[in-house]
């Protein structure tokens, strides 16, 4: 039936490329957009375009920031800039921020080393982290997902940092192995941070 509606098919093809949008929900999401009135649809498209044009990555910690304002973390003098927490993505950062148990800085790698997905160290912000660490940081906390790729990435970075006079730690084992940090509850993350161990 969809084959006879080429315009709908085209829309669905685009929606299908949106990560995390389950295939089983494609019809529902398509219907939602088709039923939107013109004004709401324009607001939606405008919001998307505005975000795309006004949001950039901070060139120090690689967290999203508004183009015309300072980075929420780097510009906050109440945060401890002698500690850097290394995360895979923005999602994990939000999880840690929600605990309110951490007041240091962040470094978003942009993923983990994963040869099967074609992601190598040079695709990530690893060199930038090493440069930052060399400027006089006391502690680097690895808060990568405890997956084989996350562990391997932490080990790779630790080797690059070993010449520097700093402490390297990682989250306590309380965070279930193989789980995405995003799905672990606030208290567990908070405890994993306070009980962090030497890497
Ligand atoms: Zn920043």
How do the helices and strands line up, and which of them pair or pack?
Layout (H helix, E strand, L loop, with lengths): L5 H11 L9 H10 L2 H17 E3 L6 E3 L13 E8 L2 H10 L4 E5 L17 H9 L4 E4 L5 H14 L5 E4 L15 H9 L2 E2 L1
Parallel strand pairs: 3-4, 3-5, 5-6
Antiparallel strand pairs: 1-2, 6-7
Write up this protein.
This protein is an alpha/beta fold. It has 2 domains: 2-54, Helicase, Ruva Protein, domain 3; 77-198, 3-Layer(aba) Sandwich (Dna Topoisomerase Vi A Subunit, Chain: A, domain 2). The chain contains 7 helices and 7 strands. It has helices at 6-16, 26-35, 38-54, 90-99, 126-134, 148-161, 186-194; strands at 55-57, 64-66, 80-87, 104-108, 139-142, 167-170, 197-198. The strands form 2 sheets. It has a 5-stranded mixed sheet with strand order 4-3-5-6-7. Helix 4 crosses helix 7. The radius of gyration is 20 Å and the shape is elongated. The protein starts with 5 loop residues before the first helix and ends with a strand. The mean pLDDT is 92. The protein binds zinc ion. Zinc ion binds at residues 58, 60-61, 63, 71, 73-74.
